[in-house]
Amino acid sequence: MEGRIKYEFSAKIWRYKGQGGWHFVSFPMELSKEIRDNLKWQEEGWGRLKATAEIGGSEWKTAIWFDTKASTYLLPIKAEIRKKERLEEGKDVKTIVWI
């Protein structure tokens, strides 16, 4: 991804317990701090940063969101990606994100 910063990490998929039941991976705290320190100026409403994500053989355009309660960024995992990559809640996944 020309001109974008690449971040790689592994994290467990978790499901939001509220309405909609979205699935996410949380960025490691130190990575979130680095991103926030360097790229906060690019955030749009609600701490949103445009991004491209890759898990397994799937790559998609998305956004990451800063969760102020957890002090970390969250990457939503769409149902289409979860199905294609056979991802389930609690599974540890290698994640690549370009911002």
**What is the helix fraction of residues, given as a range?**
10-25%
Rg of Cα set:
13 Å
CATH architecture: Beta Barrel
Strand order of the largest sheet: 1-7-4-5-6-3-2
What's the total helix number?
2
Task: Name the helix and strand elements from N-terminus to C-terminus, one letter apiece.
Answer: EEEHEEEHE
Which residues form runs of ≥5 with pLDDT under 50? none
- According to CATH, the homologous superfamily is AF2212/PG0164-like
**What proportion strand?**
35-45%
Structural class: alpha+beta
**CATH C-level label:** Mainly Beta
Question: Largest sheet at a glance?
Answer: 7 strands, antiparallel
Mean pLDDT across all residues, rounded?
Answer: 93
Note down, in words, how this protein is organized.
By secondary structure, the chain is α+β, with helices and mostly antiparallel strands. It has a single domain, classed as AF2212/PG0164-like (Elongation Factor Tu (Ef-tu), domain 3), CATH 2.40.30. It has 2 helices and 7 strands, in the order βββαβββαβ. The chain has a 7-stranded antiparallel sheet with strand order 1-7-4-5-6-3-2. Strand 4 and strand 5 (58-67) form a beta hairpin. The longest helix is centred in the middle third of the chain and has 11 residues, at 29-39. The termini are close together.
